[in-house]
Write a structure and sequence with these properties.
By secondary structure, the protein is α/β, with parallel strands linked by helices. The chain folds into two domains: 2-143 and 284-379, Response regulator (Rossmann fold, 3-Layer(aba) Sandwich), CATH 3.40.50.2300; 144-278 and 382-407, Rossmann fold. Helices cover 43% and strands 13% of the residues. The longest helix has 24 residues, at 309-332. The chain is globular and about 60 Å long. The two termini are 38 Å apart.
């Protein structure tokens, strides 16, 4: 009820100042419901759609304006992703959601030139957290280097604060995405005295027998995985085949969905993965989704992904986009915001526990604020663990902080190199 009153209040205060030609708020998605990465792309897209539908049906949109969500199918292909961007950039897009690190890298110069904000939540170019160099790119609430650091901090907590002499393997998707955490982990290995080994898996990842034979020979203490799509389930099955202990197998948040573990059956029991948001449907917002969206036959796709891990992530991305738009409306003093005003709203975004509770998502994410210098959020994450008997994820840790000093150091260094190459002058500090 408080949320509805807030929405009504914004609509009432902003309607007077809104331009006469106000139409809608356009949130395009570069989605992939086909191909090897559809197991992740489908639930994310469904969650994003359903949350925006909820806002339309329950609140009348944002600030009195209806929300329009469009999709362009990329099949996780970088070239198609660029084509999709070109097809929507003239249609008043408020924020681009590419859902691909490869596409993100290609779009950074384009969105910068066109003045269109881009949100790469938990993926993309990590150094884009440095807003002075990347003013149009945002990767809050956490990035790949944060994820690597959180995983190592968790291992430290399980080993009396020391990883000296331990052996850790990174199994990674052999792409820009999978290679993102390598330097961070190399530095952490040097500082902490553990042996770090790299094992690449080529697209799409359906054949991994040789990689896991190598892991069996190496006998590592932990395996980390930066995988996506069909690669994840294959890796978990191979780990089960060699009897690798699942509670020592830690996936990044893109390697922690139901679609990754269900095909493995009982063998996946105990598998762990990072997450930067809550799990399950025990949040008031899901009752609203049932009442206003699912119960009215308005759910996206087949309606069978509700409450799954990546569905919740898509919903979270939509919530952050909506909150940034609401912030932008308040800053601008009118409801029909421009892309530049949306960027300002994203940079002024504040997510508090109080606001999460108002949104029906108490404790769902770590509170964070965005600023000119920090487009990366809090960097915190939790660990979730799979229970094969119940078919559910459960959280096994509280929020774990990343080593933000190291992440910041590396981000500033990488951003400075990018700025020098592209003649960019930073206008703010980290």
């Amino acid at each position: 009820m408080k949320m509805m009153k807030l929405a009504a209040g914004i609509a009432a205060t902003l309607a007077v100042a809104a331009p006469a030609m106000a139409q809608d708020l356009h949130f395009p998605m570069l989605s992939y419901r086909t191909g090897a990465y559809a197991p992740g792309g489908i639930p994310f897209a469904d969650g994003y759609h359903d949350y925006m539908t909820l806002l339309n049906e329950r609140d009348g949109g944002i600030g009195g304006l209806p929300i329009r969500v469009s999709e362009c199918e990329t099949a996780y292909n970088t070239e198609r992703g660029v084509e999709c961007y070109e097809s929507v950039r003239a249609d008043n897009p408020l924020v681009i959601q590419p859902l691909s690190t490869g596409i993100t890298y290609q779009l950074i110069p384009r969105v910068t030139q066109d003045g269109i904000p881009m949100h790469t939540m938990g993926y993309g170019r990590t150094s884009a957290m440095e807003g002075g160099t990347f003013p149009w790119v945002f990767n809050y609430p956490a990035n790949y280097w944060d994820g690597a650091s959180v995983a190592i901090n968790y291992m430290l907590s399980q080993n009396e604060g020391s990883l000296e002499g331990k052996k850790i393997v990174l199994v990674y998707h052999n792409s820009a995405y999978g290679r993102e955490p390598i330097r961070t982990l190399e530095i952490l290995a040097e500082r902490m005295g553990f042996t770090f080994l790299l094992i690449a898996v080529d697209h799409p990842g359906q054949e991994q027998g040789s990689q896991w034979l190598q892991i069996r020979r190496e006998r590592p203490d932990y395996v980390m995985m930066y995988g996506w799509g069909v690669m994840n389930a294959v890796a978990i099955q191979e780990a089960a085949n060699i009897r690798f202990p699942m509670d020592h197998f830690i996936g990044i948040w893109w390697s922690g969905s139901e679609n990754d573990v269900l095909p493995v059956g009982a063998g996946a029991d105990g598998y762990t993965a990072l997450t930067f948001h809550g799990v399950g449907t025990d949040y008031p917002v899901y009752a609203d989704l049932q009442e206003y969206v699912i119960g009215r036959g308005l759910a996206a796709g087949a309606g069978d992904q509700v409450g799954s891990a990546v569905y919740s992530r898509g919903m979270y991305a939509a919530m952050l986009a909506a909150e940034a738009a609401r912030t932008a409306q308040e800053l601008a003093g009118h409801a029909q915001i421009s892309t530049a005003e949306m960027r300002d709203g994203m940079e002024a975004l504040v997510i508090t526990e109080e606001r999460l509770t108002e949104l029906g998502l108490p404790g769902f994410s770590a509170p964070f604020n965005v600023s000119c210098g920090n487009h990366g959020g809090s960097g915190a994450a939790m660990l979730q663990q799979w229970d094969a008997d119940s078919g559910t994820w459960s959280l096994i840790t509280d929020w774990i902080a990343s080593d933000r000093d190291l992440v910041r150091e590396l981000a500033v260094e990488d951003a400075a190199a990018f700025a020098a190459e592209n003649n960019i002058t930073s206008n703010c500090d980290m």
